[in-house]
Amino acid sequence: MSKILIAEDDPGIADFIVRGLKREGFECELTDSGAQAFARAHSGDFDLMVLDLGLPHMDGADVLEQLRLLQVSMPIIVLSARTNIADRLRTLEGGADDYMPKPFQFAELLARIKLRLSAHAPTPTDARVLRHGALELDLRTQKVLVDDSWRDLSRREVDLLETFMRHPGQILSRAQLLRLVWDMDWDPGSNVVDVYIRALRKKIGAQHVETIRGSGYRLL
After folding, report:
1. Is the pLDDT of residue 144 over 50?
2. DSSP 11-66
3. At what positions is 4-aspartylphosphate found (predicted)?
4. pTM above 0.90, yes or no
5. Using CA atoms, how far apart are residues 215 and 162, in angstroms rounded to an integer?
């Protein structure tokens, strides 16, 4: 049974989530304090956290940032009334696995929780090492082997490279990459994909990621 930490200071929303998850067979623990959410999330007792950004004592964005700095890899789904694209991008780039604006439907939250738990579930060792051409990506250590040298990648760089390696030879558009890596709908004003492509090229070599003008990118 998966154990979920819910950090939400609105009693009505918190009760709504807890009752729904318990009906689905999940074990839940609730906190309405950012500081306590950070302490409990860092304990290693939970499989996933649902995190509100507007928490007292410690803002949810700070909770997220500090947990990722401490390399806590537990999936975190953010709930927030902050719905503008800048806040969404900042939260996702800060390490959130998903972002749901309020108000929300419980069925959608449940689906996203199940998806993140499934993606985070242990897999056989050989499935955690991906190979494509001269590249070898170790998902456990967040390192890529290039020219006989292991290089560290950020969390999002790993997600981006993994997406390319699971779609060998396929041209992936910016919209597809936003959806697959950041779980976001297409926003023509966002340059987050281009920023991370440049960062990835610096790590693995520009020759490995081809730009297909007007279409997107492809891993060579």
Report:
1. yes
2. HHHHHHHHHHHHHTT-EEEEE--HHHHHHHHTTT--SEEEEESS-SSS-HHHHHHH
3. 52
4. no
5. 20
